[in-house]
Amino acid sequence: MTAVVEQPPVATHPDAEPALRVDGLTVDIRTITGTVRAVDHVSFTARRGETLALLGESGCGKSMTATALVGLLEPVADVVAGSARVGDTDVLAADRKTRRKLAGPELAIVFQDALTALNPLYTVGTQLAEPFRIHHGMKAKEARRRAIELMERVGIPQPQERINSYPHQFSGGMRQRLLIAMAVALNPRVLIADEPTTALDVTVQAQIMALLKSLRAENDMAVVLITHDLALVAEEADRVAVMYAGTVVETGRVSEVFADPKHPYTKGLLDSVPVSAERGAELKSIGGSPPDLHSIPKGCVYQDRCPLVRELCRDTRPELTAVGSTRQSACHFSGEVQNV
C-alpha cells in the first residue's frame, strides 16, 4: 500500500445532478508529419458538489481535453467527434455566440500559469470587473464594487487599495487567487482547474486547494481537477479518471481506485510513489515511455509497458467496461492487476 492510499476518503455525491457529461470527445492535431489523435473517445461525468480528477503523465491529453471543452484549442487542433453537455447545451456543438454566453455562468477554467493568463496591461480591478460588465451589463462603479467583493472572497488583503494594482505586483499565490476569483465571479456550474498549484510552494498549494474546496461547497460547483499529483488527488478529489495516451483507462471513486487499481497503468503510478525515506532505497518506476502519437498501437495503448500483455492486447483494444458498481477499467485482464 502506498502513502497516498492512506489519505482519508473524500465524501462522494452519487445522487448529485450531472453538471458536465463528456461522451466520446476526440481531438486531432495537424502536424507537419501528419495528423495525430491527441484525445481519443474520452468520456466522463462530473457532478455538482464534487471534484473529479483527470490524472496522468504529462502528454496524456488532460489539458487538451480541458481546452477543447472551453473552446480554446489552437488553430491546428480540431474536435472531430463527441459531445460535452453542460446542462442541456452541447458546448462542443455550440456556436461562438453561445459559447460566450456560457463562459462564466456555466463553464469556467483556471489555468496553471496565472501570470500568462492575466493581462499585464490592465489592473486586476479592470479584469475582475469585466465578467459583470459583459454578462450583467453593470455600470463601472457597480462592477468595481463587485470586483472588490471578489478579492475579499478569495482572500486578497486590502482589496480596496490593491484593486488598482497590476498582475506583476502580486505574488504567485495571490495571482492564482485572482485567477480563481475571475473564474468563479459568475458562479459557474463547472470549474475546470488545470494544474492550479503548479510552481507554488507547498503551503500556498494547500491554501489554493482549500479555497477551491470552499468555493465548490459554496456554489455547489462541479470541479474538474487536472493533475499528475497522486497525493493531491487522494486528498482533494471524490472520483478519478486516469488517462493514458489520450484515452481514459480507469475511472471510479478515488478511495477505491487507489486501494485496488484495476488497470496496470494505475497500479504502476501508485507503486512509483516512494514509501521509504531511506537513503539509497530503490525507487520504482514504470518502464518504457508512452507511445508516439504518430504510431499508436492497434490494440491496447499500454501494451508496450504492461506486465500483463498478451496476444489479445496486441490485437484488440479494450473498451472502458464496468468492473463493479462504481468502477470502470479498459483492461482485458483487470482481475489480474493486483498480481503484478
From TrEMBL:
One of its GO terms (biological process) is peptide transport. Keywords: ATP-binding, Cell membrane, Membrane, Nucleotide-binding, Transport. It is a peripheral membrane protein. GO terms for molecular function: ATP binding; ATP hydrolysis activity. SMART domains: AAA. Signal peptide: none annotated. Pfam families: ABC_tran (PF00005), oligo_HPY (PF08352). PANTHER family: DIPEPTIDE TRANSPORT ATP-BINDING PROTEIN DPPD (PTHR43297:SF2), OLIGOPEPTIDE TRANSPORT ATP-BINDING PROTEIN APPD (PTHR43297). Belongs to the ABC transporter superfamily. This is Oligopeptide transport system ATP-binding protein. It comes from Mycolicibacterium fluoranthenivorans.
